[in-house]
Fold peroxidase.
Amino acid sequence: MKGHYSKVMLILFIMSLGLVGTLVNGQGTRVGFYSRTCPKAESIKDKFLAKGLNTQDLVTLVGGHTIGTTACQLFRYRLYNFTTTGNGADPTINPSFLPQLRALCPDNGDGAKRVDMDTGSAANFDATFFRNLRNGRGVVESDQKLWTDPSTKPFVQRFLGERGLRSLNFNVEFGKSMVKMSNIGVKTGSDGEIRRLCTAFN
């Protein structure tokens, strides 16, 4: 119930602010944080910083992957021939989790098949996503790097309430970071329009 409540609040947040969309097709939601390949943590942080967002915002907003799916073609490279040693998979993947991912995304299988990014809690907006990262169960490589990178790991630990660190409430911090992100490149006047339908011009 708590997770569903959070998703409703997120929808209300978006509706209450409205969306001033670009008048150029295909650029309405492009922020420019990610390329098609998996970026290094430093590269991602630099892009967030350029938009006025800090490392905590980065970890918090990526935590939005607690709901949603990704396509096999975007992470399957981690499962097969990632290395030339061992089982060939990305060594940051928990060995007990690897068979599950390979069953969902066989080598040379359907690359468009969708897979939950937050295994076991995909329907709830909660901090389970971060627990999965701690346990080596991140599906996307850039997500898992939040745990292996020393600059982002402490924030994951704080969302998990680990002893010795000041804890963070994911639902609260996500709302704060969303507000900060909503103020990036705000369009006013004739620069854009408040769309009646987000995917189409008025």
Q: What stands out?
A: Helices lie at 2-17, 41-50, 55-62, 98-104, 128-134, 141-148, 153-159, 170-182.
